[in-house]
Amino acid sequence: MITNELVTQSIDYIVQHLDEGISIEDVADYCHLSKYYFSRVFKAETGESMYAFIKRLRMEQSAFRLKVEKDKSITGIGYDYGYSPSNYSSVFKKHNNISPVQFRNGKYAECVTNPFYQDKLVKFQSFEEYGKQIHIQQMNDFVVIYERHIGNYIELKKKWRDFIEKYKEHLKEDTLLIERSYADPSVASIDQCLYDICITVDKNCSFDNVTTIQGGKFAVYRFDGQVQDIFPAFQGLFNVWLANSCYEMDKRYGLDIYRTINWKSMQVVMDLCIPIKAHERK
C-alpha cells in the first residue's frame, strides 16, 4: 500500500498528464520538492524510480489505446506520448516484446488468455450481446475513503477484508464498495497493477485519505458471477464493445462498484463502469 500522501498526489498528477510530455521536474514541482529528494521518496514508496514509472504507464496507456481506438493511427498515439514513429516502435517493442502493429492486430481476436488463470482462454461475446447489457448513465461524484495499491489483483480479497475491518465504523446500509483501476492487466504486468479500493463516506469525513471520484457519463455493464470471471468480462467490453462503439473513453478511469459480495463463494454482483466522453465519436 502507498502511504505517503505526496506520492499518492504525484501519481494522480502523472496519470492525468501522461499524454502531455510531463517530466520528473514537473512532478517534483507539483509537489513543491526538489526532484532529487522526491525521486528518492517516490522510489522508496513504490519500489520503482519515477522515470521508470512514468515510462511504464505511458507504454501501458498507449497499448490500451491501440486496442480500443481503432480509428487512431499508431503514429498518432505515439505522438500523444512524445514519441517519434521510429522511437515509439522501438520503445514499445522493447517494453512489450512485440511491435505496435503486431500488438494492435493481435488484440482484435475472439479470445485472450487470462493472465491470472493461464490455463483459461477467454472467449468474447459479440458486439451486439455486450450492447444489450450496457446502459449509458450519468453518475454523481463519489466521496470516498481510499487506499492505493500497486500489486496483483489476486490480492484484492485480502486487501478488501483488511480495509473493511479498518473502517468498519464507517460502513452504513448505503455504503458502496468501489475499485478504481488504472491498469489493464492484459497489457500491464500483473504484479504492477495500480488500483484504489474505496468506500463511500459523508462529504464531511475528516480523514486524510479522503478523495472525490469524479462522476460523469459512464457505460455500465451489470456483472453477476465469479470474481475470476471479471477479467474476461472487462476485456470483452474493451476489445469488442468499446473498440467498435460510437463512444470514447475520457481521462477518468474505470470503476467497479460492488452491489453484493459472497465472501465465501466469491460470487459478486457489480457494475463495471467505463468512463466515456460526453460526445459520441465521429
Automatic annotation (TrEMBL):
Signal peptide: none annotated. The keyword Cell wall biogenesis/degradation does not apply. The keyword DNA-binding applies. It comes from the Bacteria. Pfam families: GyrI-like (PF06445), HTH_18 (PF12833). PROSITE patterns: HTH_ARAC_FAMILY_1 (PS00041), HTH_ARAC_FAMILY_2 (PS01124). Keywords: DNA-binding, Transcription, Transcription regulation. Residues 8-106 form the HTH araC/xylS-type domain. One of its GO terms (molecular function) is sequence-specific DNA binding. This is AraC family transcriptional regulator. It comes from Clostridium muellerianum.
